[in-house]
Amino acid sequence: MLSIRPDSFSSYQPSSLGGLGLETVDARVTISRSHYDDFAQPTPWRNFELVVGEKSFFVNPGWLAELSSFFQDYCFSAETAGNALIVDDIAPTEMLEFLRCIFFCPTRKPLTVANIALVLRVSRRFEMKPVLARCELFIANSANTLDRRKLLQVIFYHWKEYTDDLF
């Protein structure tokens, strides 16, 4: 977070925001920028690679296993233990949005009307029961305020996936 104070000795000048339409920043305004990780770089603890299209995302396999029975088996079972997974049925931009919604790196992106269908779909794909529960809670808490058309799309998709599993 960047606080702008008129008595500051910093070298910050409002003109450094040129091109953003913020040239006339009031000295009492606080400018903050949220940051979500891009998962593009491996670290000692984020060493599991999800290859999605031409992009690679590096995540913590332990956290994936905590959220997903699929990843428990894939990452830690003696028969299938692997350090990478190729995902060919999800677009890279969708995977990035999904990862930002499920991991605190450094903050977790909130569920919204814009991303709820995606998070539901991918969490079902990877058997992420805690994430599905979060999605269901979001829908239940937002049912009265969501756009009706979007709500019906989400409910229909979720119901279709649920009934496909039954038959």
Primary descriptors:
single chain; 167 residues; alpha+beta; Potassium Channel Kv1.1, Chain A; 2 domains; three-stranded mixed beta sheet; disordered N terminus; BTB/POZ_dom; SKP1/BTB/POZ_sf
Task: Give a concise summary.
The protein is α+β, with helices and mostly antiparallel strands and 167 residues long.
Task: Explain how this protein is built.
This is BTB domain-containing protein. It holds the Pfam family BTB. Residues 46-143 form the BTB domain. The protein has 167 residues and is of the alpha+beta class. The protein has helices at residues 61-67, 69-76, 92-102, 116-125, 129-142, 148-166; strands spanning 2-3, 30-31, 48-52, 55-59, 84-87. It folds into 2 domains: 1-33, no CATH class; 48-166, 2-Layer Sandwich (Potassium Channel Kv1.1, Chain A), CATH 3.30.710. The strands form 2 sheets. It has a 3-stranded mixed beta sheet with strand order 4-3-5. Strand 3 and strand 4 form a beta hairpin. Helix 3 (92-102) packs across helix 4 (116-125), helix 4 (116-125) packs antiparallel against helix 5 (129-142) and helix 4 runs parallel beside helix 6. The protein starts with a strand and ends with a helix.
